[in-house]
Specification:
The protein has 399 residues and is an alpha+beta fold. It is built from 17 helices and twelve strands. It has a domain of 278 residues: Cytochrome p450 (Orthogonal Bundle). The longest helix has 31 residues.
């Protein structure tokens, strides 16, 4: 058995706390081969960063079989910016960035603030009625979905559907998924595609001041997004934006509760520490722990040659606990200034929604503590039983 096989992504113990295993995987400072997964694992900051940045390590999507059953799901990925490589990726990213501009993102600030106030009002009502509320279900989860809905031009009353479709689809990225989860992902993918397709057709006739309209109209050197690419982009924005924001926020909140000194520091001065706190949220317990790429040619990563056709998985959660890059790696420190984490990825696949995720968390985190300065757990948080996308199902709180 290879050293990498100490990591079993379906082992409940590894899901609950993979960090001691990561420490062992980083000991050689190199890539390690996993017989269990039939791929290379990149556990250090240097190797994970290199895997993400190497031009000969591509994000290659292999269609699911049978093709007829997975038709919609397959093109949702093959026509997605996430699963494309240059020159297609270059064209897609250029077109999307013309619509998904910094100005459009920054203009969302008042809307995000208003949504936070609304959600906090509802949480306060639950607190008064029941004595507790759920930081995830009542605050962290609905916020990014509502923000993306407003950005795209989707009615807010569709938020629950959007969130459900997203949660069903991302379960396909986990190891050991069930047939029931596969069927649900197919159905949710189909429902999502039909809905966005209808909105896009409507925007071509009746343009609005929203991102779907901008994506319909965007053009560069005669190039436009085709229907599949437009729909895939909308689905990716929701899935990636929702999962990263929710899990990053939730993981950080649990870390705060487990470190009372840091909780007190943030509660006493949330505006001062919110920016560095959210970066530590992303580093200390990253929302995405595994991101695989495939060698399109023999690729040297450290002393290891990843042969053409072999896969390598960047272990982002491990990379962000690398003692050669970060001081006191296992200490949760919301004042940490030097924090070059790669929780949002690196290279050409650096998360296009990272500025929006940061804006959401920089707004929502201080507002939570300004409303509830005495925030405390009202019970044990319940962890999600997933490895790739790491997060929590419930975080009951009182104030």
């Amino acid at each position: 058995m290879s050293v990498a096989d100490i990591l079993d992504m379906q082992d409940p113990a590894a899901v609950a706390n993979p960090y001691p295993i990561y420490t062992q995987l980083r000991e050689s400072g190199e890539m390690v081969w996993s017989d269990r997964l039939n791929l290379w694992l990149a556990p250090t900051h240097a190797t994970a960063n290199a895997v993400l940045r190497a031009k000969t390590m591509g994000r290659i999507y292999n269609p699911l079989e049978p093709q007829s059953e997975w038709d919609i799901f397959n093109w949702l990925h093959s026509d997605s910016i996430l699963d494309s490589e240059p020159p297609k990726h270059t064209r897609l990213r250029s077109l999307v960035q013309k619509a998904f501009t910094p100005g459009r993102i920054n203009a969302l600030q008042p809307n995000i603030t208003q949504l936070c106030e609304q959600l906090l009002d509802e949480a306060q009502t639950k607190l008064a009625t029941h004595g507790h509320f759920d930081i995830l279900a009542d605050y962290a989860e609905p916020l990014p979905v509502l923000v993306i809905a407003d950005l795209l031009g989707v009615p807010r009353d569709m938020a629950e559907d959007l969130r459900r479709w997203s949660q069903d689809i991302v379960k396909m990225y986990e190891f050991g998924r069930t047939r029931e989860q596969e069927l649900q992902a197919q159905q949710s993918g189909s429902d999502f595609v039909n809905y966005i397709s209808g909105l896009a057709a409507e925007r071509k006739i009746n343009p609005q001041n929203d991102l779907i309209t901008a994506l319909v109209e965007v053009e560069e050197q005669g190039e436009k997004l085709n229907e599949h690419e437009l729909i895939a982009m909308c689905v990716l924005l929701l899935n990636a934006g929702h999962e990263a924001s929710v899990n990053g926020f939730g993981n950080g909140m649990v870390a705060l509760f487990r470190n009372p000194d840091q909780l007190e520091l943030l509660a006493n001065d949330p505006r001062t520490y919110s920016a560095t706190a959210l970066e530590e949220f992303m580093r200390f317990d990253s929302p995405l722990h595994f991101f695989d790429r495939t060698a399109t040619a023999d690729t040297q990563i450290g002393s290891v040659t990843v042969k053409a056709g072999q896969k390598a998985g960047a272990l982002l959660g491990s990379a962000n606990r690398d003692g050669s890059v970060f001081e006191n790696v296992d200490t949760f420190d919301i004042t940490r200034e030097s924090n070059p984490h790669i929780a949002f990825g690196a290279g050409i696949h650096f998360c296009i929604g990272a500025p929006l995720a940061r804006l959401e968390m920089q707004t929502s985190l201080p507002m939570l503590f300004e409303r509830f300065p005495n925030l405390a757990l009202a019970g044990d948080p319940v962890q999600r039983p997933t490895f790739v996308l790491r997060g929590w199902e419930t975080i009951p709180a009182t104030a």
